[in-house]
Design goal:
Strand content: 15-25%
Shape: elongated
Order of helices and strands: EEHHHHHEEEEEHH
Helix content: 25-40%
Radius of gyration: 37 Å
Strand order of the largest sheet: 4-6-5
């Protein structure tokens, strides 16, 4: 007759129902899988979040990390969490909130750099001309009208003359002409209009464009056919609407 399998004590864990107790936390596969993914012993940001939480149960869990049995075996994360009075659902909710706070902190730390980059992208700026590769001139054919802007001989090249059979019969000097860039660039530079979406966001951050209702509106006309919707909001008039306030 086979010996009966040992009965492991169970406890109720929130919406999960009956699960292995803290003494048999190693048997709680789902809980251990979740906590093994977090790996709090190796990830400093998880330990920092545990240390900063106001909930003493999570501080107690932090204190239990690295615990071992009297025989030197590692105690499972689930057993540590259950001994601290934390269920899987509670730990999951805590982790979500901790990650949200971490994301907000990263946004706050990097927000200045992001806004600076946004402002750079929103501004009009001079860039190299694609037509002339920033040179300000292009090679031209012989025989153009002499009043073509910048039309002149750039250099003289020597070419070899060949007969029908490909034999060299002599040499000849030929002029290579150039003309000003037909794109009308300024010494190889052209104006690139700033990104209109980023322009709109910068003006919205600054409070000059208020999409949510009345407030301070600053409108200025910049002109230029290339301006998009955000630029069109800057009309020819400057309108300032400030709600009256009184102070005792």
């Amino acid at each position: 007759m086979k010996p009966a399998k040992p009965q492991h004590p169970l406890i109720r864990d929130g919406k999960r129902g009956m699960v292995p107790s803290r003494f048999d936390g190693r048997l709680d596969v789902e809980y251990n899988t979740f906590l093994d993914t977090l790996d709090p012993e190796k990830r400093g940001e998880i330990r920092l979040a545990l240390a900063l939480t106001p909930d003493p149960r999570f501080k107690a869990f932090l204190g239990k990390l690295g615990s071992k049995t009297p025989r030197g075996h590692r105690i499972s994360y689930a057993a540590m969490a259950k001994a601290s009075g934390i269920g899987l659902e509670e730990f999951h909710d805590w982790f979500n909130k901790a990650q949200t706070q971490r994301v907000l902190a990263l946004c706050m730390v990097n927000s200045v750099d992001l806004v600076e980059e946004m402002i750079k992208a929103a501004k009009n700026r001079m860039v190299g001309c694609d037509r002339c590769d920033g040179l300000g001139w292009v090679e031209a054919e012989e025989g153009l009208p002499m009043d073509t802007p910048g039309y002149k001989i750039r250099r003289i090249v020597t070419v070899k003359l060949k007969d029908e059979e490909g034999n060299v019969t002599g040499e000849e000097d030929r002029p290579i002409y150039q003309r000003d860039c037909p794109a009308g660039c300024d010494h190889g530079k052209v104006m690139k209009v700033g990104d209109d979406f980023r322009l709109e966001k910068v003006l919205e951050i600054a409070g000059h464009i208020n999409k949510k209702g009345p407030g301070l509106q600053l409108n200025q006309f910049f002109g230029g056919a290339a301006m998009g919707p955000a630029s069109q909001q800057l009309s020819s008039a400057m309108t300032i609407d400030v709600e009256a306030e009184s102070a005792d």
